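User: Earlier you gave me the apo prediction for this protein. Now I'd like the version with pyridoxal-5'-phosphate bound, so I can compare the two side by side. Same sequence as before, with the ligand SMILES added.
Assistant: Got it. Here's the input I'm using:
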Amino acid sequence: MSHILCNLDGQIVDAAKATVSVLDRSFLFGDSIYEVVRTHRGRLFGVTRHLARLERSAARLGFEVPIDEAELRRRIVDLVAALGATGETYVRVVVSRGTASEPNIDPACTVSGPLVVLYARELSPPDPRWRTTGLSARVVDVLRNDRRALDPAVKSGNYLNNILGLMDAKRHAADIALFLGTQGQLTESETSNVWLVHGDRLRTPSLESGILAGITRDYVLEMLRRDGTACEECMLTESDLRTADEVFLTSTVKDVCGITSLDGSPIGCGEVGPVTRDVGERFAVELDRLVEAESSTSS
Ligand SMILES: Cc1ncc(COP(=O)(O)O)c(C=O)c1O
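And here is the structure of the complex with pyridoxal-5'-phosphate:
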């Protein structure tokens, strides 16, 4: 396992020595929020958008991130430097509502302010299958949470629904789960947004479908629109998924990742298709541009 370094409420400490109370609400109830940021060519990428989403998640759950954006950013930068990874760095930012006086779900029993924990480790190198043979997917029986329940737009620490879906996928020898929503609409994967290609038509589920507004999804949409590539955000069905020529995912960790089989049958010709390859290659160039632009505005 790679070395994990933490920042526990302001102090940098080795993960093995970083401890949180058994009465912490994230442990008891998953009552927390999180973000994952990473470096690209050693430089942090998309932090402003990730921290803005963290704020939105906190607001939706009715608590506050106890430190401001500048301090959080400083902690992330310092932790990345302290880890000193030779490759890229993965950083997870977790904010728990705080410690409870007793194991009682009522947030009124919270006796501390929110707790901020950062984890940094070396980012595992991309799985070559993401860009070559692609991954396999299963449309799982577990439904994506309805927006009126724990809204998927909130990046909360409660991923049990996604975990159940992933377990179902793995039981059926698939790499990832694809979730339908309560109206039968296509939503997303357990930790990635999904895109469909039919001929030259490129589509991804709209935010109204009940998904996380992925930061990578946003950057890819902006890149495609700027370059004049038509793409739509809309409600998509299971049948759209099953008739797609190509399917791919986007996420902070995977960037653009091909999906080449669904429930054991090939998608299209069963290979990472030309549109997925093209979007992946263009996004790799876009990442260079984005980190460059970000470091020139933050310096
Ligand atoms: C449910 C879900 N959808 C989509 C994504 C992709 O979001 P991002 O591009 O911000 O990493 C994630 C990332 O963890 C996720 O958990």
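For your comparison, keep in mind: The CA atoms of residues 40 and 88 lie 6 Å apart.
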